[in-house]
Write a structure and sequence with these properties.
The complex is a heterodimer of chains A (111) and B (114). Chain A is an all-beta fold and 111 residues long. The radius of gyration of chain A is 14 Å and the shape is globular. Chain A has no helices and eleven strands. In chain A, strands 2, 4, 5, 9, 10 and 11 form a six-stranded mixed sheet that branches. A five-stranded antiparallel sheet of chain A has the order 1-3-8-7-6, with no helix packed on it. Chain A is 0% helix and 59% strand. Chain B is mostly beta strands and 114 residues long. In chain B, the strands form two sheets. In chain B, strands 2, 4, 5, 6, 9, 10 and 11 form a seven-stranded mixed sheet that branches. Classes of the chains: A mainly beta (111), B mainly beta (114). At the A-B interface, strand 4, strand 5, strand 9 and strand 10 of A face strand 4, strand 5, strand 9 and strand 10 of B.
């Protein structure tokens, strides 16, 4: 099955700093999503981005499908950005529509 | 509410008891998925449905786990004879159509087996 690797595994920032999260995947995908799991355990959709670039406020994401990676940018980080960020993909091959998740990246933003 | 809902939000049970977890997807969504998330890990796929048909149950860990979606809307995940290793967050998601569409997750059910 498809492999999903996220880096870095953990990151500690001061409020106001910028960060880049990377997601590498091992095969072609139909779907790629970025999620934020907040400290209360809710899984929040950030981006649905199987290819191209999207922006939403301080967050933006780029997926280069031909090179099998995606990047999530967080600018001017705030303490509310703390939590775990997951990348998840649905592979093109095979009959299942399941999402395969990476192990996540824990972000801590200090005031 | 327009989102995916799950109940109960928290369930504590004793080893050997059966539990039923409910998922109410976004209205009109064809596909419904169940995932399980252990502490400190990402969610892992269990099973999914298109309408009422179970399409893939390859992620169910053993035959104590089963799921149904009889009318193509609400789904129930049942765990029989629970064991301590079943303790986890159980998440449900739905998407408008099948392949390649964005999945939206519910708040999850935190199951603790004593």
């Amino acid at each position: 099955g498809i492999q999903v690797e996220q880096s870095p595994p953990d990151l500690i920032l001061q409020e106001g700093a910028n960060s880049t999260l990377r997601c590498n995947f091992s095969d072609s995908v139909n779907n790629l999503q970025w999620f934020h799991q907040n400290p209360w355990g809710q899984l929040i959709n950030l981006f649905y981005i199987p290819s191209g670039t999207k922006q939403n406020g301080r967050l933006s994401a780029t997926t280069v499908a031909t090179e099998r990676y995606s990047l999530l940018y967080i600018s001017s980080s705030q303490t509310t950005d703390s939590g775990v960020y997951f990348c998840a993909v649905e592979e093109t091959q095979g009959g299942s529509e399941k999402l395969v998740f990476g192990k996540g990246m824990k972000l801590t933003v200090n005031p | 509410g327009a989102g995916v809902s799950q109940s109960p939000r928290y369930k504590v049970t004793k080893r050997g008891q059966d539990v039923a977890l409910r998922c109410d997807p976004i209205s009109g969504h064809v596909s419904l998925y169940w995932y399980r998330q252990a502490l400190g890990q990402g969610p892992e796929f269990l099973t999914y449905f298109n309408y009422e048909a179970q399409q893939d149950k390859s992620g169910l860990p053993n035959d104590r786990f089963s799921a149904e979606r009889p009318e193509g809307s609400i789904s129930t995940l049942t765990i029989q004879r629970t064991e301590q290793r079943d303790s986890a967050m159980y998440r449900c998601a739905s998407s408008l159509f099948a392949r390649g569409n964005e999945q939206f997750f519910g708040p999850g059910t935190r199951l603790t087996v004593l």
